[in-house]
Every structure is written in structure tokens, then in C-alpha cells.
Amino acid sequence: MAKFQAPKGTRDYYPAEMAWRRYLEGAWQRVSIRNGFEEVEGPIFEPLDLYKVKSGEGIVSELFHFTDRGERELAIRPEFTPTLARMVAEKANALSKPIKWFSMPNLCRAERPQRGRLREFLQWNVDLLGTDSPVADAECIYTAVDLLRELGLTPRHVKVKISHRDVVRRILMRFGVAEDKIQDAFELLDRRDKIPAEEFNEQAGKLGLDQSTLERFNQVARMRVGSQAAWDDIAEQFAIPQEDLEDLAALHEQLKAFGIAEWCEYDMGIVRGLAYYTGSVFEVHEVSGAERAIAGGGRYDKLIEMFGGPSTPAVGFGMGDVVLTLVLADKGLLPDDVTPAADVFVLVADDSARCKMNGIVGALRAAGLHTRFSYKTTTNVGKLLKEAGQCRARFAVILDAKTDQQNTVSVKNLQTGEQSETGIGELVPVLKG
Amino acid sequence: MAKFQAPKGTRDYYPAEMAWRRYLEGAWQRVSIRNGFEEVEGPIFEPLDLYKVKSGEGIVSELFHFTDRGERELAIRPEFTPTLARMVAEKANALSKPIKWFSMPNLCRAERPQRGRLREFLQWNVDLLGTDSPVADAECIYTAVDLLRELGLTPRHVKVKISHRDVVRRILMRFGVAEDKIQDAFELLDRRDKIPAEEFNEQAGKLGLDQSTLERFNQVARMRVGSQAAWDDIAEQFAIPQEDLEDLAALHEQLKAFGIAEWCEYDMGIVRGLAYYTGSVFEVHEVSGAERAIAGGGRYDKLIEMFGGPSTPAVGFGMGDVVLTLVLADKGLLPDDVTPAADVFVLVADDSARCKMNGIVGALRAAGLHTRFSYKTTTNVGKLLKEAGQCRARFAVILDAKTDQQNTVSVKNLQTGEQSETGIGELVPVLKG
């Protein structure tokens, strides 16, 4: 029994797990950059008050918080958005618009670990601020899809479920929900899959949605839209004016133009409970409904003001590593071995050559080649070549009885088995060529 | 005045700062991998007790610590070594030796921010466990030098100052320090530059080093060694048996063989106060003595046992980002602009072509090209090309009056000014070719 273990809900990354983490982070970073987003980062802890701005006092019980020696209340970050909002607010005038930022922070939440939720996890954040154009909402969704595709997922595996707060608000009001109950209705819809149907119906009734209206809303909410014609059909079928749907129809046009319509579905049951969303909202889900949401986001045009900045329209999303990894594993899309393979393995086949080893290893590394050698003192070439194989080296450089006197070594291509003699001075060009 | 600011002693990374951080982390990672180290990571917080194992109760005041809802005492990591020791101890039997690990964690210390010290910083950790060969000590030092060289530093800028606890112990004992005062003597030597000379001399006297012995020790400590002859000279000059120096002489041979002798100095004043070092100790310093140590490390053969693992010889070092960055800045070695340049900027020169923009942008990104476009609705090509220049795009793809009807665009090479017409379907091969 080990004396110490990793804290509950956290992970140790041994080399194989770390290589997978870097593979995922590499995909997040590559996709972000090619979509024109610039990387940012912030502190691992922030003033506790920063997290109350958008989430209220209720957030405190979910945070790991502490006081420093100056009695300042601090908390380990449970999300990146407040840091982003603070950073934008602080330099709003100096930043050219639109601001397109991404980050890949580790975040901590003091909640009970369970499937798909850990106490420390990674989250890819993508945010586009300074424009209210639906092109921005579509570009964020495109970026999420670009990442899913990059990892081998297809529309058969995952879908982006899209809604729009204004559209849902208009329909709910048209169906009888009073304006001052809309926020409650959003929160209820968000909890729909988490509470018993009876409780849901009872709550809905209190908000003005009786059983038959609720059924009508459900039909609208779960509509499937593929073309302009379908939007018209829906408007007609449910006796909703077309302009009630126009925000979603406009976003749909942009997504179609980006070529990702087949990845997208419209689902007005998606409202996302967080009060700060103001327009589009979307979640990425595994198609069968297995697992929690892979990603979630939307438009939040009021948030930068809440953090003391100027009025700044904004849209963005977050994608955690935990659920994404579960889905990739389930689909057989986790790559086999992503640890870096060695370029060269230097081995000593004759003890007279051992004095040359460090020098050759150092010269190859200085030339940028990933170079390994054995700490074993054996000169058994078979055993040493086995070690070379374990680090997946492309070449073995064999120091033999002639090396010390004649400054030559043998180079063995470990893929073809081909072997030839080379002067030590020629080694770098031979191996790089 | 902004409503919120980053906590004292922490940093916000806007895109330019983040690009520099990635540049530095990229160098750490590249150099680690080519030297055969594998990356690992651990949790951002650990049980508070984990940090008391090697540092005692005294460490607690330097930590950001807190309790979770299960009343477990936790702390944000102030260093990575305890996590590494825990991870090695937990899987010691399953890990093949030697274990060569690196990591680049963010660490937090609740100390007063000052030049070269922040409350949150990055630290490159390089550790080699499972062999007591001096080749391992030399390989770690080589890896540190390989990084310094990778960033443009030379032996004119920085030196590795090397000592060895056993050598210093033998000399101190030969000069009259009792065996049970050796640890106190190490701690005193470590504080030499931090306390007044008078206090140092008084404390040294108590340990058995009178004024003339201390001067003799100083001469040995600050010796300059370049060859075997010099080691012999020192032994003779100070009437020390050659075997008293043999650990350093053996390490020196290995460093010379790695081709980095000119980066290394021997300085027995370097003992590093931490009690857990058992053999070689070393620090990287700016040559003029400006700034704190850039890196520090050494051999710690007893540590894994302290964390409940099997007896495991080990050597390693840590290099923070803060002092390193100050030194690079001072030497003019900070690169100018390391933010990623765009491959392509797509611009709409005629409103009839706007309907094609998303599709072209999406197709280029899906092909891996870093593609930007303007959120401005102007069709003024001059203004749009200026925006293309700001993101350092190599190509502009111009959508014009013919684009919508004929599916053609103009491709402008922004380095040469050359411009030609291309079918939309040919765009990817044209831009990638």
C-alpha cells in the first residue's frame, strides 16, 4: 500500500497518459490557431469574488478556496470565463476587435467525482468578442466541429444541438409563459433530463404551461430542421410568425455556408441554465445520448459589462477533456501509442568505444535528433537492439572495436535492417538525410 | 480603474505573452524529448502532508492550503518533486529503469513577490532515477546546457556551478568540522551570500572553522578546474588526498566527454541548503552573478524511500521561467514576435461573393491552413489587405465579382505581390504547393 496517493478526483499523468494529453491539447491548439484564435492564459487562482459575479454566492461551495497571509479570499479557478472577462475588461480599449481567444486551462471543482466529472480537469475555451454578427456564432460552432473531425469523429458519432434564447423566449411567451417567468422556464428546461417527469410537469404548470401547451412546446423544441422550407413548415404548423424563428434561421444559413449543416441539429430544449447567455446556445452530444455534453456554449453579450468593461458582444464555448475522452474511447478513436519515438539509439558493442559514447550522443542531440542510449554496461548487441526497439528508434548507431581508433561507427536502419559504416563526423547528415 | 485585477504575484498571459510562454515551453519540451526524457504531470493540489515529508512543518507557511468538504488538508503544489516521488513510489516495480521524466508544472508559493520570484511560476523539472552512475548526473547537466544553448545562451552568458556533497563533506571534516556538524555547515554555506560576513564567520567558528581554516576552505571552494592536471594540483596544494576529490573528478570526465566542459565550473560553495541532496549539486548562474540561480539540482538517492518507495538512486534539476526570462531579456535573446502567422487571409472584394466566404474559409481550415477573414463588411481591398498584413498572412485569397458565377478567386502572394486567378476547387493545392 503506497504511503501517498493522488487526491480524490485528480489524475497522475505517467508518460503514456501524458502523451495522450499532449495529443489532445495539440489538436485543440492546432484547430484553434488555424481558425484564427490566439492563445491566452491566466492565474490558477483568482479573488473569490470574481466567481460570484456571474454565479452568485452559490458557487462558493463548489470551489476550493482559501485566504492568503494578507487575508485576501482566493479560489482555484473552476472555470476560465471570469478570468477572460476580467482580462478583456482590463484592456478593452487596447485590444483590436474582434478578439478571438482560446485557452486550455486546468480547472478545479470541489464536487463529488463521478463518470465524466473529476475534481481537476482540462477545458478548451474558445471565445470571439466584439461582434454581434451571426457569422461569429457560426465560426465558433465551426471551430468545435473542426476539432471533432480532427479527432476522427463524424456526424454519425456526435451532433451539435443548437438553440437560441430569443427564439425560445418568443415561443414560450406565445404559448402563455409570462415575461417575468422566462428565466425560471429556462432553468426548468435545463433540468428536464435530471428531474422526474411528474415534477417537471408540475413546475411547468406553475409557469403557465399546461399539459397540452407543454406537448405543443415539446414538438417545436424537438423539431428537425434541414432547409429554409423546413423553417417555413414549422412556422406554419405551429402557427408561429416566421420572424419568431429568424435568429435560428440566420444562424442556420451561416452554418450551411461553412459546410457543417450535417453536424448540426436544432433543439429548443437546449437552453443551458446559466443566466448569462443572451442569444444562441449550443451543446455537443454523443448521438445516442450516452455521456454528458462534450461541449457547451453560446452568446453572452452582457458579461464583459458585469466585470466592469465596456459593452462587448461575445460568443464562445468550453469543451472538457473528460467526457470527450470517454466518447473517443467508446468509438475506438484513442490512438495507440503517441509517446515520441526516438530517432537514434546509440549502443556500445565494444568497451574500448565507451569513451566515445557521451560525445556522439551530445553531438546528435545538439543537432536536434532524439537520441537515446543504454545505462546498461553490457556490450551484447542483441540485448541493446531490443532496448532500441522499445523506444521505437529509427536508427541504431553502433560503436565497435574500430570506433576509438578509426572514428567510425555502424549505422543500422531499424526499419529496413540495412547497415553501413560511417565516419563520426558524417553521422548527423547521414541520419538526417 | 478596473473592477478586478490578477492576484498579486500572478500573471495574465495576453496573446503576445502566451506566445512567448509557448516558445519557452516548446524549447523545454523539445530539449527534454531529444535527451530521452518522457513527460509526466500530476495534480495541481496534493495532500498537505506530502509537502512536509522532505521540508518539515516549516513549509506550511509558504503554501496556499485549504481543506475540502471531507476535511482533507490540501495544498496547491509549491514544487513538483514530492509529486514525482509519490508517483515513482506508487509504481516503482512496474516502471523500467532508468526512469527519465520531465515536467513543466505551474507552481505556487505564498511568499512576497520580488524580482525573480512570483507567487505563481512555471518550472521545468528533469529527473533521472534508478541509476547511481555519474553518467546520469552528467546527462542531466547536459540537458540543462542543451536548453540554454537552444535559447541562444553561451558559456559567456551563463555557467553551471557544480559541487558534490561528499567532496565538500570530506574537505570540511579534514579541515576540522565534526561529522555531526556537517549538515549545519552545508546550511551555513548555502546562506553565505544572504547573511553579513561577520555573522557568517561567527557561525563558521562555532562549527569548528576558524578564520585561517575558513580562508583555506574558501580557496578550495572557489577553485577553477579545467583538466585532470588541475585536480591533481588542487589535491597537492591543499594537502587533500586525491580520493577526496574523486567524485567531482569522475563527473568532470563525463561532462568533458559530453562536450560541455566550457559551460561548467566547480564551486564548492554551492551546497544547496535542502537536506535531501546526497551527492552532486549544481546551479546555473548568469556569469556576472546578476539575478538568482536560473536552475538548481543534484543527486537525491534517499528521497524515494522517504515517500514509501524502494531504495532508488536519483538525480535531477528544476529551472523556473522567471529568472530565465530576466536573463534572456538582459542578453537581448527574447525573440521578437512568436505569435503564429496566418497562412491565408480570405477577403471579399465584391458583395456578390460574400455568400462564398464561409465555404472557402471552412474548406481551407479543414485542409489544415491557418485561415483568417475580416469581420468588417467593407469591400475596400486596400483596407482588407492591411488587415491581412497585421496577421502576417502569406497569401490573400480575393473573392471578386466573378467568384459567385465562375467559381474563381484571385490568389495574391503577399511576399512577392504576385497575383493569379484560380478555381475554388484548386485553392488548397495552389496554397499548399
Q: Which SSEs are present, and which pair or pack?
A:
The structure is a homodimer of 433-residue chains.
Chain A: H1 15-34, E1 38-39, E2 45-47, H2 52-55, E3 65-67, E4 73-76, H3 81-91, E5 99-103, E6 106-108, E7 120-129, H4 134-150, E8 158-164, H5 165-174, H6 182-190, H7 197-206, H8 211-221, H9 228-237, H10 246-257, E9 264-266, E10 280-286, E11 295-299, H11 303-306, E12 314-320, H12 321-330, E13 344-348, H13 357-366, E14 371-373, H14 381-390, E15 395-399, H15 403-406, E16 408-413, E17 419-423, H16 427-432
Parallel strand pairs in A: 1-5, 8-9, 13-14, 13-15
Antiparallel strand pairs in A: 2-4, 3-4, 5-7, 6-7, 7-12, 8-10, 10-11, 11-12, 15-16, 16-17
Helix pairs in contact in A: 1-4, 4-10
Number of strands of chain A: 17
Shape of chain A: elongated
Name the assembly state: homodimer
The helix tally of chain A amounts to: 16
Report the largest inter-chain contact. Answer: A-B, 96 and 96 residues
Average pLDDT number of chain A: 93
CATH class of the largest domain in chain A: Alpha Beta
- Under CATH, the topology of the largest domain in chain A can be stated as BirA Bifunctional Protein, domain 2
Query: Which CATH architecture of the largest domain in chain A would you pick?
Result: 2-Layer Sandwich
Portion in beta strands of chain A: 15-25%
| Uncertain ranges of chain A | none
Largest sheet of chain A: 9 strands, mixed
Would you identify the CATH H-level superfamily of the largest domain in chain A? Answer: Bira Bifunctional Protein, Domain 2
Helix content of chain A: 25-40%
Question: CA-to-CA gap between the ends of chain A?
Answer: 50 Å
What is the rounded Rg of chain A?
Answer: 28 Å
Number of structurally distinct domains of chain A: 2
Structural class of chain A: alpha+beta
